[in-house]
């Protein structure tokens, strides 16, 4: 079947996490995403673990591969006048330009929105900086970990008697920021299609991350309460936690949300009957004691079997899966065809995430593995700009294609 974004062409200056993930969403849906790279300053993810077979290499990073499926890569020295000119020629033939640099970087390269709009009034130009292009902190440089810190996300993640732990880059780079960016891009492209007019999109990556902590922001706004770290505990539910199961490093999660579930858990695990614990406030008071009693029993059971049994009793429970479980032993993901094997030209058959959505009349599966650096330079410059082999060789000698 046809892909839903077939015919869309993207000149992609993004790198690292959220930006690359945004354009991956478009590429997997059929957009022709041309990733502009240079060997003199590699995308950080190209040299980030894990590497295939533990062997480092610019084409061997699993992290880079997962963020760049279905894309093409060309190497182009934008700081060289001829490289800049080639970039502009590519942009004229495109629908969308993307970057996730700090404000001012694209302008220094000679590719700011005003310049690009002058050569292509219909272009959609999406910029994904940390703080956006306006405001007193617009020049801040940040990554996922920085964003979780400045939004308050990190302050609320961890154990109550320990330092803020945070969640790494998981939330900002892989959930709200690329999702919001892709939505804004598609809206602007719809406007472009209907009117022929371009659009500049200014995305501040801090702001979508705030959506992930809306209840805590509301709790402060309405009640003046500053939510802080509570580990696996919950302000309303008890007991709730991660408990040891049978086996090496095997665990089960359990969350009791009302008295009916509590009584069911007591019966299922054979816990001591204590009428005082029928009240949630008393269970919260004695949480540590209850946790010890629960773990004495859960440690005797297989996590998957026990979770299924508790779920039948309408208790929120689930095994704590590791990567082996998710990839090899998850029947739901297998049934939906979530894992896709693509044959990478250097590392061979490799596992990729499928798109999380399925269309009834269009294909959404990634169509190609992540590209080798510069893999498509000749193909793109010949196909889009009509350059011949002699011209390409001369550009390489001049340091334009590196």
Automatic annotation (TrEMBL):
SUPFAM superfamilies: CoA-transferase family III (CaiB/BaiF). GO terms for molecular function: CoA-transferase activity. Keywords: Transferase. InterPro entries: CoA-transferase_III_domain, CoA-Trfase_fam_III, CoA-Trfase_III_dom3_sf, CoA-Trfase_III_dom_1_sf. Pfam families: CoA_transf_3 (PF02515). This is CoA transferase. It comes from Orrella marina. The lineage of its organism: Bacteria, Pseudomonadati, Pseudomonadota, Betaproteobacteria, Burkholderiales.
């Amino acid at each position: 079947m046809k892909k839903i974004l077939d015919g869309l062409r993207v000149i992609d200056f993004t790198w690292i996490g959220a930006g690359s993930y945004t354009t991956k969403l478009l590429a997997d849906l059929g957009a022709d995403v041309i990733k502009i790279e240079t060997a003199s300053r590699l995308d950080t993810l190209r040299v980030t673990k894990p590497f295939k077979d533990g062997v480092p290499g610019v084409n061997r990073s699993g992290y880079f591969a997962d963020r760049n499926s279905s894309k093409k890569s060309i190497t182009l020295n934008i700081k060289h006048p001829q490289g800049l000119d080639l970039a502009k020629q590519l942009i004229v033939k495109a629908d969308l330009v993307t970057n996730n640099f700090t404000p001012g970087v694209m302008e220094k390269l000679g590719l700011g929105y005003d310049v690009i709009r002058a050569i292509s009034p219909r272009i959609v130009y999406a910029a994904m900086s940390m703080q956006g292009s306006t405001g007193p902190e617009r020049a801040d440089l940040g990554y996922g970990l920085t964003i979780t810190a400045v939004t308050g996300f990190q302050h609320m993640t961890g154990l109550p008697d320990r330092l803020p732990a945070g969640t790494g880059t998981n939330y900002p780079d892989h959930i709200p920021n690329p999702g919001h960016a892709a939505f804004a891009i598609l809206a602007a492209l719809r406007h472009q299609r209907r009117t022929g007019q371009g659009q500049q999109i200014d995305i501040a990556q801090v702001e979508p991350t705030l959506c992930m902590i809306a209840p805590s922001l509301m709790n402060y706004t309405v009640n003046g309460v500053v939510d802080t770290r509570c580990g696996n505990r919950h302000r309303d539910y008890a007991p709730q936690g991660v408990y040891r199961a049978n086996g090496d490093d095997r665990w089960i999660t359990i969350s009791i949300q009302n008295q009916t579930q509590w009584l069911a858990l007591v019966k299922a695990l054979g816990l001591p009957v204590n009428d005082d614990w029928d009240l949630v406030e008393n269970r919260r008071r004695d949480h540590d004691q209850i946790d010890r009693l629960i773990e004495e029993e859960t440690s005797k059971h297989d996590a998957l079997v026990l979770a299924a049994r508790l779920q039948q009793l309408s208790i929120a429970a689930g095994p704590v899966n590791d990567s082996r479980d998710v990839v090899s032993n998850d029947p739901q993901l297998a049934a939906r065809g979530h894992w896709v094997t693509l044959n990478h030209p250097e590392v061979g058959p490799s596992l990729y995430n499928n798109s999380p959505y399925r269309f009834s009349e269009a294909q959404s599966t990634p169509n190609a593995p992540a590209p080798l650096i510069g893999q498509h330079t000749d193909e793109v410059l010949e196909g889009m700009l009509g350059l011949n082999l002699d011209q390409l060789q001369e550009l390489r000698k001049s340091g334009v294609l590196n």
